[in-house]
Amino acid sequence: xxxxxxxxxxxxxxxxxxxxxxxxxxxxxxxxxxxxxxxxxxxxxxxxxxxxxxxxxxxxxxxxxxxxxxxxxxxxxxxxxxxxxxxxxxxxxxxxxxxxxxxxxxxxxxxxxxxxxxxxxxxxxxxxxxxxxxxxxxxxxxxxxxxxxxxxxxxxxxxxxxxxxxxxxxxxxxxxxxxxxxxxxxxxxxxxxxxxxxxxxxxxxxxxxxxxxxxxxxxxxxxxxxxxxxxxxxxxxxxxxxxxxxxxxxxxxxxxxxxxxxxxxxxxxxxxxxxxxxxxxxxxxxx
Length: 287
Hints:
Blueprint: H1 23-37, E1 45-49, E2 64-67, H2 73-83, E3 88-94, H3 95-101, H4 103-112, E4 117-122, H5 157-163, E5 168-173, H6 177-189, E6 194-199, H7 211-216, E7 218-220, H8 230-238, E8 243-250, H9 257-261, H10 276-284
Parallel strand pairs: 1-2, 1-3, 3-4, 4-6, 5-6, 7-8
Antiparallel strand pairs: 5-8
């Protein structure tokens, strides 16, 4: 058992590229605490990311990591999952990388449903490239590029994921570290694609969505909410007013992509191609 965060901590001399006060630090602490409490073997853990400030997070965790191209974290993670289905696999990237450049991969990863935990640092701005609007930026927010204010409708990742029937969809706020830790733990334990959209401030390039703003514009999911109710989950995801935090939707039992193509826990390159009868039986399950 891991007795502290030390097993996932990088050396104290590690150069951290994040600004003082950045919400990334709180999310990183929550993730390391979740991994520790779950007793995850760091030698069997792979962290995958794309490009961006949030995408640097796996570089600050003492575990295996793969840093891919901008927006391409999910296809890389899918390849790793098919190569070794026994690994614990976590994708961690930002709102621009995941919902902007990687938006198409986000959609199709949900369709395929590999057993991957997807944690998105959602600070509603591009932090690495100096503050232009991201897909989740609020309307009327001004930036060095959108000088008269953002005019586009913000992308709603939770609503999109639920609409596509992602089996696990949650929203957290990095400032609530205990709750964020709990949600991440539940997502890692879940079998299937688990989407965790984590709201967090960018203290340099986003003067609108501050710690105070998120505290005032978020609420807890109602105690009587049934996460198995997809219609109710979608209503929470799109409701006006404060954004509900917690597990919005959870549906057990959906077959994972590796179960459909990898003979369960067998790496894809070792799988025997199904014969005609086996292939027909597989197709019949989806009719």
